[in-house]
Design a protein that fits this description.
The chain is an all-alpha fold and about 110 residues long. It has three helices and no strands.
């Protein structure tokens, strides 16, 4: 059985892997051409469900008798907002290969 701290560390690593490329674009949008942005956004959308599943596993397993439904809902809501922001930016700025402002990705 994986320890809770190790499971938490793996989730945090996965969080960085999931959001890292999007944040790099937000930090330096001019460093990426339209094709690179398209590939990064496509990967983000592909990985969304897999990351969500890791979050489900973390919140619902690992500690007998505990279920972190509220924390899961909060995290899922924030991830959903970011997902929606990326979609909206891609629709609005689609001709530019997608432009995402870092401030719009901040967690509230």
């Amino acid at each position: 059985m994986v320890s809770r701290k190790r499971q938490q560390a793996e989730l945090m690593f996965s969080l960085g892997q999931f959001f890292g490329p999007i944040l790099r674009i937000a930090d330096n949008p001019n460093d990426f051409d339209a094709d690179e942005k398209t590939r990064i956004f496509a990967r983000f959308f592909h990985d969304h469900n897999a990351f969500n599943q890791l979050l489900v596993e973390f919140c619902n397993t690992g500690e007998p008798g505990h279920q972190y439904a509220i924390q899961f809902a909060q995290a899922q809501h924030q991830i959903g907002l970011i997902h929606a922001l990326v979609v909206c930016q891609l629709i609005v700025d689609g001709s530019q290969g997608g432009k995402v402002e870092k401030d719009s990705l901040a967690f509230n």
